[in-house]
Amino acid sequence: MTPGPALVSILRQGAYLIASVHTALDDSQMVRFQDDLIGEIGRARSRGVIIDVAALDVLDSFGSNTLRSIAEMARLRGAVTVIVGIQPDVALAMVKLGMGTGSVPTALDLEEGLEYLDRHVQHSPAASARGGERSR
Asked: Quick check: pTM over 0.85?
């Protein structure tokens, strides 16, 4: 039996992690994504995290709450989080349902998310010495 396509991907980009959600996740998949991402923050010693949800055409309250939880856990581990790619219909539905991202910043797309992290992440000299800075 061959495994199906990846539901999410987590890629390292210098001091940042880029986590892309490729399809709608059920609650157990969302929890696994959360655990995997938080674990990877520590392994990669990441200073910033981008969660890209551009592929999602729906985001339920559990998903929205989980994204907020991920951002809070990442903050406690020393990483800044930004959510990117919320589609217009998803944003409209979230507002109508009284859901949101709380204090988690959002950006239009990956490029703006990277710019946000570049402005808000404190890059330590030690990270530079380890090659942790993102090259341009």
From this structure: yes
| Chain center to CA of 79 | 11
pLDDT, one tens digit per residue, over 30-64 is 999 999 999 999 999 999 999 999 999 999 999 99
Residue spans of alpha helices (H) in 45-129: 61-76, 88-96, 110-120, 125-129
Domains in the chain: boundaries: 8-125
- Write the DSSP assignment of 55-76 as a string of letters: T-S---HHHHHHHHHHHHHHHH
- Helix (H/G/I), strand (E/B), else coil: 101: coil
Q: Which CATH class is domain 8-125?
A: alpha beta
- Residue with the two structure tokens 């520590």: 42
Tokens of 68: 């907020």
Rounded CA-CA distance 43/134 in Å is 17
